[in-house]
Amino acid sequence: MKFNKMLAAVGVTSMLMGTALAGCSSDSSGDGGSSDGEQVTVELAGWGSTPEEKELLNQTLQEFEESHPNIKVEHEVIADQYMDVMKTRLVGGEAADVFYLDAFEAPGLAKTGVLEPLDEYVTDEFDVDDFQDPLLNAFKFDDKQYGFPKDFSTLALFYDKQAFEEAGLEGPPKTWDELREYADKLTVDEDGDGQPDQYGLGFSSELARQFYKLHPYGAKVTNENNEAAFASDKAIEALQPIVDMKKDKIAALPSDAGTDWGGDMFGQGKAAMVIEGNWTVPFLESNFSDKDYATAELPTVNGEKATAAFTVAYVMNKQSEVKDAAWELISYLTGKEGMKTWTSKGLALPTRESVAAELGFDEDPIRKAFVAGASYAQPWQAGPNLPTINNNFNNQFTSALLGDQSLEEALKKAQETANKEIKASN
């Protein structure tokens, strides 16, 4: 699915993310965690990325090795079934010392005890307070920090300036009610056949794109027992507006317009607005360079600012035999210097506020909406059973959008099925 590929590009580069020293054998001399100068090799595993991102990561790793001459990094790209491969290797004692971990999978993996808590390695120089809290806390469980986020993207509203001008609209909608009004005015059916040539809004149906709406209504994805809990009346109230907009043909899925995902739908002019992530920016630059568009923070939901955050961390294998050197790598890649190099082109956004400001992303006309959303975003995360919950939600919610069943029926069926599967797996 295109969305999943683009999420990885935030990584959410491809699932989209300080040179402080710590540990008894490491110091600020940059000797790579080896007090006697012995060469240390740190294995780093992650998924694939675009050529541009690969080049940036290679540059960052090269700069790390230059400043830490006694540490060599062996970087492995796991092209397919990344988490399945990592889980198998962790069980078998063959996993890399440092590896990518998506916030989506973090609660489940932290629960198994295979990750090294990083709190004891952190020094004041690392400046933990510089991270955006929602992104940092996505990798904190039971008061232990298991990873530091390398990059992120929130969701923002992309809107077509020309379409807005033709519809007599100025500026983006501020509330969800206004979004519906705008979508109605922006929907164009030139031949009157009931099939719009331009939809007001393009959106994705996955839970990853819908869950942020629940909290402002007092609804949740899961309960305290990590069971599915999204079939409440409040959840229905939160999700009904987009179902109604789809029914009224002023909002549509990419497939309704013959496209694969929202960025392409927007680029082709088949939607005047889409809700997408920062990964859409380089896509539009490469494929629709003449597109005159702007971005804005998402319209408020039930009177509250809300958006989703997709983030990935570097984490340490608890079984690593070179933990001090592994921390040196993590602290550099997520520190100010390494993060500045990695995010310098805006393909992925920095999770440190100071780096975002230094690179000018907090003032950039296109990217500032994504940066602003980080302070209040909800990470794409909801406990260790989210993969099971996610699959069941997606199947049933799509059927509600297609009109095959009511939203209430769809959510109830999805919740019941998810909880049966969760119970069976425990």
Automatic annotation (TrEMBL):
<dbReference type="GO" id="GO:0015768">
    <property type="term" value="P:maltose transport"/>
</dbReference>
<dbReference type="GO" id="GO:0042956">
    <property type="term" value="P:maltodextrin transmembrane transport"/>
</dbReference>
<feature type="signal peptide">
    <location>
        <begin position="1"/>
        <end position="22"/>
    </location>
</feature>
<keyword id="KW-0813">Transport</keyword>
<keyword id="KW-0732">Signal</keyword>
<dbReference type="GO" id="GO:1901982">
    <property type="term" value="F:maltose binding"/>
</dbReference>
<comment type="similarity">
    <text>Belongs to the bacterial solute-binding protein 1 family.</text>
</comment>
<dbReference type="InterPro" id="IPR006059">
    <property type="entry name" value="SBP"/>
</dbReference>
<protein>
    <submittedName>
        <fullName>ABC transporter substrate-binding protein</fullName>
    </submittedName>
</protein>
<dbReference type="Pfam" id="PF01547">
    <property type="entry name" value="SBP_bac_1"/>
</dbReference>
<dbReference type="GO" id="GO:0055052">
    <property type="term" value="C:ATP-binding cassette (ABC) transporter complex, substrate-binding subunit-containing"/>
</dbReference>
